[in-house]
Amino acid sequence: MWDFIVDQLLPILIIVIFSIALFIRVLKQKQRMCRTIHWRKHRKMTIQLLSISFVYLIILLPYAIVYIIRLSGLKNAFSNEFYAYTVFFSYFILLLFPFVCALSLPESLIKLKNFFQLKQQQQTKPTNQPIFTKIKSHDKIFQDRPFSIICHLPFKDPRSTPCDDTFCLECISKWIQTQNRSCPVCRRSLSIDELTQVNRPIRNMLDRIRVKCTTCGQSELSRGNFKEHVEKTCPKMQILCSSADIKCPWEGQRDQLDEHLSNCAFHSLRYIITPLMTENEQLNELISNFRSDNQQLREQTGHLTIQANKYQREIQDLNQQIAQLRTQLQNQQIKEQERHKTSIFNEMIHSNKNMQMVPNGISLLKGVWEYIDGENFDSFMKEIGVGMATRLLTKGLKLRLIIDEITNEWTVRFESTIKVIEYKFVPGVEFHETTFDGREVKSIVIFSANKWIHQMLDKNGEKSVIIRYVDQNDMQLVEMECGIVKARRWYKRAT
């Protein structure tokens, strides 16, 4: 059993677990240093780890599982023939393991070759002094390590830290902006504001690095001029036609451009199309300006409409307030008038309750009277609620009025060609009356200062007052009042 654990089970666990752990460690390291994972660079490592894990999992793991089950007492779970096959296939580990190890042999040879070359260079003394012997101490470090430890590429826009380390600006900025606010080398606290640009000699040295264009294959290009080479001179670079701005669809290598231009229909028509395009751009600019002005006018119109609506609402509110105030004022005036009339009426009742003798001025009202003229009588009748038909009917009538008194009981009789109305009353005593226009009212008549005061209250609560007296011309004057409407009528004695 111990032989199985040492020879079979432990190698499976150790090799598989450590292979997976190593792979995860590489991924975590790339993520921590803010670097993208280039699978092409890690292809060999991935193949090595997966191949050795595959060998142990596929070939040796079935045998280990069957053996553990048989040790548990479940010998009948698998047949002896299946167990013999698992044992047989487990021996293939010895045959396949050298081939798996051979996958890392080329990389080992390269490392050994570099190691021996380095030893040989150390033994050989240089004939010339280094090119950067007069650069500062941290520049010597830069000379020994001309690549960024973050991206492992030559420095691009290098920046120095207070601890004399150098990094690409983009790399160190991403490093600081993540959770790592420290130097990748010395772990000292670091911020973007502390970064400084490296001196001119170092930037010149970086620009003099020799590179090769992978597109056209030209080598010995200085890194400082590589961008110009790509944009202007690389013969294999994919470019557009010079007439692409007038919709030429051609795209090809730079060394094929001259041949294309000799046959390009767009290029031959360029001197015709260019003025049209210029004019079209100007027209488009004018249209854009008009649209912008139109949009501004629409916005201004919208603001003015909002303000106008606001002012309209305010005007409506003010009109409502004015109407309410006017109604309140009219109601207050009516209440004051009614209060005043009621007060006068009560005073008259109180002063005439015990009056036994009729004033001389009231006695002059006795007799027969004929209607001669009126003033604002139609408005008065309208105010007390008389309909238009009745008003028109009574407008031209010649009334005959008869007033008589027997033992303090007065009789009033109206005679016309269409109707005769009569009512009786005792001064100071309320009585029910049917008026000439057909209204049912409560009435009371009071004599005061030679005036006949007749107050009426209809079923709608509308009050009216009629005052009769004889003027100096022996004419009976009738003054009528309802609300704010006043009217007068004149009668003369019948002959």
From TrEMBL:
Residues 211-248 form the TRAF-type domain. The chain crosses the membrane at residues 6-27, 47-70, 82-105. It holds the Pfam family Lipocalin. InterPro entries: Calycin, Fatty_acid-bd, GPCR_Rhodpsn_7TM, ILBP, Lipocln_cytosolic_FA-bd_dom, Znf_C3HC4_RING-type, Znf_RING, Znf_RING/FYVE/PHD. Signal peptide: none annotated. CDD domains: 7tm_classA_rhodopsin-like, FABP. The keyword Protease does not apply. The keyword Zinc-finger applies. Residues 150-187 form the RING-type domain. A zinc finger (TRAF-type) spans 211-248. It comes from the Eukaryota. Residues 1-101 form the G-protein coupled receptors family 1 profile domain. Keywords: Coiled coil, Lipid-binding, Membrane, Metal-binding, Transmembrane, Transmembrane helix, Zinc, Zinc-finger. It is found in: Membrane. One of its GO terms (molecular function) is lipid binding. PROSITE patterns: G_PROTEIN_RECEP_F1_2 (PS50262), ZF_RING_2 (PS50089), ZF_TRAF (PS50145). Residues 280-335 form a coiled coil. One of its GO terms (cellular component) is membrane. Belongs to the calycin superfamily. Fatty-acid binding protein (FABP) family. This is RING-type domain-containing protein. It comes from Adineta ricciae (Rotifer).
